[in-house]
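Why predict the complex rather than its parts? Because the way molecules touch one another can change local conformation, and only a joint prediction can capture that. The input here totals 979 residues.
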Amino acid sequence: MMAPSLPVAGNRDSLLISLFFLVLSLSLFGQIHLWVLLLCICAAVVRICLYSGLYNHMPGRRMVNLLALLAGVALVTTSNNVDFLRVMVNLLLMASSLKLMLLSKRRDFFQLFICGIFLLACGFIFYQSLGRTLFCAAMFIVLLFILFSAHNPSAGFAFRRNKSAILMLQALPIALMLFVFMPRIPPLWKMPEGKSTETGLTDKITPGDIANLAQSEDLAFSATFTTALPAQQSRYWRAMTLEYFDGKSWSASETRLYAQVQLQQMRREFYPAVSGEALRYEVVTEPTQKTWLYALDTAVPDSAASGQALWQGWNYQLSALQPVYSRFAYQVASYPQTQRVSSNLALDKAINTQVPERGNPQTREWVNSLRQQHPWDNDFAVALMDYFADEGFEYTLTPPAMLVDPVDRFMFDAKVGFCAHYASAMSYAFRLAGIPARVVSGYQGGTPINDNTINVYQYDAHAWVEALIDGYWRTFDPTTVVAPSRILEGFEHAARFSNEMQGEHPLNGINQWQVFEYFRILNARMDYLWNRWVLGFDNNDQTDVFKRLLGDISTLKMSILSFGLFALTALLLTLYFVPSWRRKAISKHQKRYLTTIESIEKQFNIRRDNRSPRQFYEHYKAIFPPRLSQALLALTQEYEAIEYGGHSQGVEKINQRCRLVYQALRDTYPRSRC
Amino acid sequence: MRKEFKTVIDTLSEHIIGKPHQLKLAVTCLLAKGHLLIEDLPGMGKTTLSHALAHVFALSYSRIQFTSDLLPADMLGVNIFDQQSHEFRFHPGPVFNELVLADEVNRASPKTQSALLEAMEEHQVSVDGTTYSLPSPFFVVATQNPSHQSGTYPLPESQLDRFLMRISLGYPSWEAEKAMLQQPQGRDKTPLSSCISVESLLEHQQAVADLRCSDAVLTYVLNLVNQSREESGYPQPLSPRASRALLGAAKAWAYIHDRDYVIPEDVQAVFAAVAEHRLRGHQQEQFEESTLSQRLLNSVDPLAA
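Output of the joint prediction:
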């Protein structure tokens, strides 16, 4: 059979679907290889040329095959450091582009349609925002329209609209049901770990890192309080406690990690003694691929589920048991008035007074003299803060590079820097003076989007100092004395009034108009709701839904429910398909005839291909042995008489003729299994 | 094949040598009460065929040569004032015959063309407010030159649709042409004897109309026309008139082959003649190797429900 082909030039649908793929690949910019994008653009250009009649020759099959081979090689060589999913998305997009160049048959068109839907869904691996969802929904509708227009070119807009609407409405209940009830089983539901992380904080602070971070407007997490919001200047969200200093960078201490593992194995957990009033809130974090979590000091898990998923570090750092690969929600209670005791005085002291043996001679000397003036730890701390306040330090996001003896350079030459510089220098000074101190990195501030929710963005990243004085860990933030506005009014505010940020920061200037401010907050609010109720809809929420439906949860009920759901889905699908099945119902004698023909087809490796019974017989009778030929002729005549002549002998006679055909087949080819 | 029609075809074949399939289609068209359009280059035997048909079926015959200055009145007839009776008397034109040959129909102006087509559809003509019935059977054989020839007004799609079939004779084979050349020259030939009387032709036509047609064949016809409407690549999908024509022609084909029911092969046999001119319209160019009707046939399974 010759497959009907689409006329190539002037076919609007093939142009539309290639434009669809172009937009789709552009929307994945940054996630796919540049050359795959180029390939896609090439395919679109080819289509546009064919459509406009600029060029009338389709790329040949040979050429595209060669291109496919080259692209395959390119994919293998460029995918060394890319995770598996991304490679697969690239592969699919590459294949679609090549198919686009060859698109001439209806079957190609439907394959592309399926690929398009699949790629749209793959986009969610990289972006999950509300805007992206709306974009995908719009693209999906466009794709449906293209499908209908390819199916029925003469149909008008209204027909396509109605058909698409019907399809969407049919799919909606099933989609909703799957979303709400489908169990999120971890190995299936987890994204593979990406090799490159794109989160803000890193587990190592080298002054210089946070400058780049501050440019990022991405959401880090949002917190919803059930109690009153804490004040801006007291919102220090601890993410990591960094206790090892190598002279340049601060990172987690190996000793600490080793000790934690030991304690974990001994099942000794740390329960901080908390006191005072509690702030209760729920945090929804963006995926970080890391285990650290965010909380105000001093935090303890506030629900049974969170208690199981969270782990309280002996350095007051809260972590998740699994790396956070998808949005993760947890409930905590913070007790800001708590005095943080050292969990293990000897260990804390040993870890937190470590400094590199040499380096930064100027600072060492200066600390020695200062320490002699202020033998009391408290006085020393005050003196340090005073030094930052009085010596003309400035806050800047673009400090000069400090490569050799960075603390010396910062303290005595440059005197400009941002939070990481100050925190690093101060902790170092504390340690030189013999006072245990460490750098805490996390976020400071955040933007309230309504009465009880705070969104914290990557540009809120911050670092401060924790020193062990008189047996308690006390927080010092040298940045406050240098740039009070950074702490009091948030990063945005500080950035706006910092001269060097003019014209650089995307938020600059826009906020001056109230309308924009309003929309920004609205957008943040929508984003929060989206994150909380759609993306963050996890096992816990699911369990809640089950509880509301079933009362308490038992295995029996759960299995009945899941079985019922599958049955319901199957039933719904059946209901959709029954009408088309019913229309396609065929008579018994036709079925019998067709199965017989199928056996012959298999035996001789031939195909009926839209031939009528008579044509099938005439076309192939030469290759059949005489006996089969006769039997088939008899069957064909009988079938014609019944199907077209209305003779009512029915199935019995057809059966008889079919048996004869089978006999003839068996006699000729004894080993065949008919 | 039914005996009487075998004789008809054999007789016709004496004059039109080597074209049995086209002859069969022409007879089928006549039995299905449809009109025939023969499209071919000059000198291929269009006129001879229609002439032979009239003789074989013993039909009264007239020939109208269509030219650009032919007026409807020339064809339909005029009211003439009779000096003796002092009244107007209708003088019927050449269209009042059982078989009318409209030669080179696409050379006439659209006005004249449409007058003929009205007669074809209604089987009656109106002149000066009086309606005159045309004889029965009434059968128009129109011939036309391919429209790229100079001096032609191509028939619009709506008028093409009125012709049940369009056939073209094409060049004869080597042997056929040789046999033709060996025959005595043109008009000196022995005149054709009539094989079927007008009365029995009418009976046959009635029998064709009453022929049985199973659901399976109706489904096949519907699948074919729907495919042309839903699939892209058919500039002019088949109309309901086309599906009725297709069924009628298939019945006549089955009847000629002495079957009292229609099978898909009957539909397929007449499909190209019935559907191609409707699908293609007056765009005569053929880019592809296969014709539109062939493509359509290939894409529909006769056994599909």
